[in-house]
Structure formats: C-alpha cells, structure tokens
Automatic annotation (TrEMBL):
PTM annotation (4-aspartylphosphate): residues: 52
Start and end residues of each Response regulatory domain: 3-118
Superkingdom, taxonomy of origin: Bacteria
Cross-referenced Gene3D superfamilies: 3.40.50.2300, 6.10.250.690, Winged helix-like DNA-binding domain superfamily/Winged helix DNA-binding domain (1.10.10.10)
Cited function: May play the central regulatory role in sporulation. It may be an element of the effector pathway responsible for the activation of sporulation genes in response to nutritional stress. Spo0A may act in concert with spo0H (a sigma factor) to control the expression of some genes that are critical to the sporulation process.
Domain OmpR/PhoB-type: from-to ranges: 125-222
SMART domains in UniProt: REC (SM00448), Trans_reg_C (SM00862)
Protein name as it appears in the record: Stage 0 sporulation protein A homolog
Length: 224
C-alpha cells in the first residue's frame, strides 16, 4: 500500500484528501505542523509527500530543502500552493519539489498527479481502476467497495472492468454483450445483460456512480 505524508494546516482540506485517497487504497498520515512532519520523516521515508507551502510554524520551501538533505531525491514531493503564487512555485522547484497543484483543486486531479509522480519514481504501476468508492485491481482481479472486498462472478467482473476502463463514456448494451459474452463464444440474449447488471449493482451496494443510459447502455462516472 502506498504511504503518503500530508503536511497541511487546513484540517478540513486535509481530512477530505485523506478520505479520498484512503478509498483508493492509499495510507495517509496527516501533519498539521512542519515540526511534526520532521519528526515523522526522521523515523521513516514515505512513498510521497504532499506539502502545503504556508504552514503556521514555517515555510514549505525550507522543509523541501531539509528533506533533500535528509533523503536526497528518494522522496517525491508534490507542492500545494494558492493561485497567483508563481514566484513561490518557482522557488519550490528550486528547493526540490517535483510537481505542484494549485488550490482549490479537484481531488481527481490531485490523485492523477500523485500517480504520475509515483510512476516517475518507479514506485507504482497502474493496476487499479477507481470510481467513487469502487476500486478494481486488474492484477489480482479483485473488487472493493471502500475497504470491503466484493466477490463477483466472471461475467459481473468483466462487465465492471469494461465500464471501469471506459469511465466517463457510455458503453452500449451491444458493446457489452459482444465484449463480455460473445468474445468468449457465449452467445446470450439481451435479458442476460439486464439480469447480470442487476446482480452487479446489488453486490456493489447500488453505487450512484453507475448510471443507466436509457435505451443505450451504461456509464460509470465520478459523483463525489
């Protein structure tokens, strides 16, 4: 599991980010001061650091330089700053930050930047797909609703996988029938899809992110 340290003095923002990333199977430790973050970093190097520049007891730029002296370039640092602080962003990069996100930010944008940094540092490969509280691991062929593992039949899993891979797009009923069943040589009627989808919804606790597009098909899209 990816371990993230998040240095942030706004507790509401910190808790929202933590909840979002935990759903995506990441372990998040919050620090509301630079002093507390330093104590933790002296004990262990996480996989990634989220760093707000303006902290009550110091400046993010100074913490960046301190981290680089302690851990070198081993620790990816994602800088969080407010709009208009262009000079501060430049300073952050000079002091060792690897990337930045401007506040206010969309949680999905922050998550994509985190994954990009982890890929660059060689610490992850994208085997997980997400939508709201749902996650699917393509390597383990496992599905989770928050922290609960959901056991699916093969057609249910393949159906969810196809929708996950096309998140944000409507997948037609015909496409689902052809790719989930006909590709395996199993020719079924349209009612099979309806029944399988019904069972899938029930097992997934009827998620709001799974939409029925009447007369066309289905679509998965973020709703939180």
């Amino acid at each position: 599991m990816t371990t993230i340290y998040y240095v942030e003095d706004d507790r509401d923002i910190a808790e929202n980010v933590k909840t979002y990333l935990q759903i995506r199977q990441m372990e998040v430790h919050l620090f509301y001061s630079i002093a507390d973050a330093k104590q933790a970093l002296l004990r262990k190097c996480p996989d990634l650091l989220l760093l707000d520049r303006n902290m009550p007891d110091g400046n993010g730029d100074e913490l960046c330089k301190w981290i680089r002296r302690l851990w070198g370039n081993q620790l990816p640092i994602l800088y969080l700053t407010v709009r208009g602080e262009t000079a501060d962003i430049v300073q952050g990069f000079q002091d060792g930050a690897d990337d930045y996100v401007v506040k206010p930010f969309e949680l999905e944008v922050l998550y994509s930047r985190i994954l990009a940094l982890l890929r660059r540092s060689g610490q992850t490969k994208e085997t997980r797909l997400f939508c709201d509280h749902l996650s699917l691991d393509t390597d383990k062929m496992s599905v989770f609703w928050e922290q609960e593992e959901i056991l699916l039949s093969q057609p249910e899993y393949q159906l969810l996988l196809l929708l996950m891979k096309n998140k944000g797009k409507t997948v037609t009923r015909r496409q689902l029938l052809e790719q989930v069943w006909d590709s395996n040589g199993n020719y079924v009627n349209d009612n099979t899809l309806t029944v399988t989808m019904k069972r899938l919804r029930e097992k997934l606790h009827n998620p709001t992110c799974l939409k029925t597009i009447r007369s066309f098909g289905y679509r998965l899209e973020e709703s939180i």
